Amino acid sequence: MMRTLLRRRALWLLTVVATACTSPNPTLYTLAVVPGYTHTRAPRHIEVRAISMPHYLDRSEIVRSTEDFRLDVMGNDWWGESLDTMMGGVLVQELLQRLPGSIVFPENGAISSEPDASVEVNVQRFDADRSGAVVLMAVIAVLRHGETVASRPIRLRVMPRAPGTAGFVAAMSAATGQLADVIAEILAR
């Protein structure tokens, strides 16, 4: 009887220790498509080339900030896919909405049509500043038939409207939408 009781306690203790050592599943997030103003004059076929991201953002965990020489990473809040791929897909959808007469497709997609215009985005920063606002710094270029027709730096700042990771990701989505607004405006010229 005593041995049975000791075995049960040992099994219970092992179960408790094993449970304590496991971490909860991460919460996964994705950028959302944000609608914007539509433009009627734009090239017919537009290719969004692969988005270039700084390596510090190339991770599963969401990077909250790079202020004060520190990388503030949200340990259990992860992206549902790589940020550069997700941002490229969202930009394609946002440009489709903003440029209803155009066919917008990603560089690495199934469409192999020769584009009338291409969009390149080099993200330099996409995290929060000291005030908590999301900062998106990038250089964008629009090419027509292989030649750059417009290139400019962009600095967008969006304050989250809600606390926590969901509010932070919503602000990142809003910044991506504002980036799509700028790109659509350039393409419509």
Arithmetic mean pLDDT: 88
Which residues form runs of ≥5 with pLDDT under 50?
A: none
Summarize the main sheet.
5 strands, mixed
| Number of continuous helical runs | 3
Number of E-state strands:
8
Number of domains: 1
Oligomer: single chain
Estimate the global geometry from the Cα principal axes.
Answer: elongated
CATH H-level homologous superfamily name = ABC-type transport auxiliary lipoprotein component
SSE-based structural type: alpha/beta
Radius of gyration: 22 Å
Distance between the termini: 86 Å
**Helical residue percent band:** 25-40%
The top level CATH class name: Alpha Beta
| Fraction of residues in β-strands | 25-35%
N-to-C series of helices and strands: HEEEEHEEEEH
CATH topology: Rossmann fold
The CATH level-2 architecture is identified as 3-Layer(aba) Sandwich
Element layout with pairings:
Layout: H1 2-21, E1 27-29, E2 45-48, E3 61-65, E4 72-79, H2 83-98, E5 103-106, E6 117-128, E7 134-144, E8 147-158, H3 164-187
Parallel strand pairs: 1-4, 2-5, 2-6
Antiparallel strand pairs: 3-4, 6-7, 7-8
Helix pairs in contact: 2-3
Word description of this protein:
This protein has 189 residues and is of the alpha/beta class. The chain has one domain: 3-Layer(aba) Sandwich (Rossmann fold), CATH 3.40.50.10610. It is built from 3 helices and 8 strands; from the N terminus they run αββββαββββα. It has helices at residues 2-21, 83-98, 164-187, and strands at residues 27-29, 45-48, 61-65, 72-79, 103-106, 117-128, 134-144, 147-158. Strands 5-2-6-7-8 form a 5-stranded mixed β-sheet, covered by helices on one side. Helix 2 (83-98) crosses helix 3 (164-187). The radius of gyration is 22 Å and the shape is elongated. The mean pLDDT is 88.
